[in-house]
Prior knowledge:
This protein has 65 residues and is mainly alpha-helical. It has helices at residues 3-46, 58-64. The longest helix has 44 residues, at 3-46. The model has no long low-confidence stretch (mean pLDDT 87).
Amino acid sequence: MPPFVEFIVITIIMLGAFFLVFLLMYLFALVLFPIERSISNAIWSHQAPPPVPQKSSFRDFSKKH
């Protein structure tokens, strides 16, 4: 096999492997997306709601000071 043809074949195989790895990672991310979403929802639902600020008036401030 001439070196030029061998170079082309190796280049095509390496590019194919490169895109195959990214395709597999994309499919892996698609499979794990529902799991990640359910974990994220569980974490956000267990967090305490932010405290509600109480409305203060000028009279309350005057009483304290």
